[in-house]
Amino acid sequence: MTRVTVQPGAEQPRHSHATSEQVWLAVSGAGVLLIANGEEREFAAGQLARFSDGEVHGFRNTSEVPFLYLSVTSPPIDRGMTLPLEHQRTAAYRRDTLWVAALVHRISGVLLACFLPIHFLALGLALEGESRLDVFLRWSNTPVVKLLEAGLVFMLAIHLLGGLRVLVIETLGWQPWQKQVVTGAAALATGAAALFLIRAM
Q1: Tell me, what's the pLDDT at 45?
Q2: 3-state secondary structure at position 32
Q3: Which architecture does CATH list for 96-200?
Q4: What residue ranges of the chain are covered by domains with CATH 2.60.120.10?
Q5: pLDDT of amino acid 110
Q6: CA pair distance 176, 33, nearest whole angstrom
Q7: Mean pLDDT by 10 residues, the chain (201 residues)
Q8: Rounded CA gap, 11 and 97, in Å?
Q9: H-assigned helices in 72-177
Q10: Is 72 helix (H, G, I), strand (E, B) or coil?
């Protein structure tokens, strides 16, 4: 167990412990916990906070008096091996919903770029003549292609909604409700793809 005092205006930078979890008990004072994705959460005397292994955490004293908390770590940490977040590699952030949303947004962009040559092929066949285009259209009317087209609609919806999310973050800053928006966007994209597939079949 460690007794920690943070002076007014002082900050413990975000960090994590790869193989240990911590429990903090706020004894006196108030401030904000610094957690993943730039989020902050109020933390004051009488409150308890638990951080699992690999979970990002830190603290800033926003009050005018020293902040005191007790930290219980299991298993104990070798302090020489604890590094600030910017100096260590951790995969804990990959469990976050918004990181998954950002990853899907990027993958959908890559897959859409891969689709462009097929789109240009169809346009080229249309210019070469009606018969060649008809052959291509008959091939594209198979169930497998219809399924791939539904996937394309899903990727388009995900990429569009993901781009709007980034625009909101850049314009309005981080808001806690964005995780719910991400879930809603995924459901909307899935619904759009399912509707397309039903109509196509």
Answers
A1: 92
A2: strand
A3: Up-down Bundle (1.20)
A4: 2-92
A5: 83
A6: 15
A7: 89 86 92 91 93 90 92 72 49 62 78 78 71 71 75 77 70 63 71 66 58
A8: 27
A9: 97-128, 130-139, 143-172
A10: strand
SS3 23: strand
Token pair listed for 165: 């999310």
Residue position matching structure tokens 């020293």: 66
Question: What architecture does CATH give domain 2-92?
Answer: Sandwich (2.60)
Round to whole Å and give the CA distance between 99 and 171: 19
- All CATH 1.20.1300.10 domain ranges in the chain, comma separated: 96-200
Given the DSSP bridges, would you call strands 57-60 and 2-6 parallel, antiparallel or unpaired? unpaired
What does 135-155 look like in DSSP terms, one character per residue?
A: HHHHHTTSHHHHHHHHHHHHH
- Structure tokens, 12: 């413990």
**77: left (phi > 0), else alpha (psi -120 to 50), else beta?**
beta
